[in-house]
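Quick illustration, no need to memorize.
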Amino acid sequence: MADREDQKSAPITIKKYANRRLYNTATSSYVTLDHLCQMVKDGLDFVVYDAKTGEDITRSVLTQIIVEEESKGQNLLPISFLRQLIGFYGDNMQWVVPRYLEYSMQSFSRNQDQVRDYFQNTIGGMFPFGRLDEMSKQNLAMFERAMRMFTPFGPVGASEEPPPAARPAAPAAAPSSGPTFDELQKQIDALQKQIASINIPGKPDGK
């Protein structure tokens, strides 16, 4: 038990060398992306550093694991989601996407634990396709509403004025009627409360 707590408090260090080999400093052995994938599933925290520069490359390695899993046919990321996500790179709303996705995955993870508990304790391991499908549609609808919430802001740079030399000689445009920063924050907070309040169908209070 103490060893598990130590692993959680101190991430395992993985070093990546120029030959693309990954070295686990905790076990003093070389590992593969499959090994790191299993470590994630086992709840073992780790960080990956470039052995030469010391740069933290954990994000790129985790992304590479996702690409590898997707290439094996384990498709978790819908094409529509990938297109929306790519569209946010460089967008003036890019800053809010990581926070929203992180919160959404945490909420989904909590729902996942509730579903497993529901199957085991309420119906003895049976698999009610109808109820699970209903909850999945509810979560998906919530996510789609959240993504549509950002569309009023328009394309990248829509709120920025062109430089004086390139500014066309036209009457000044009316002030934007889009939501303010405070209003956006309130919408996000309200959405987060809605996600957290999702209940499992057929089970009081989702407990």
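The helical segments are 2-9, 33-41, 58-71, 79-87, 96-122, 129-149, 181-196.
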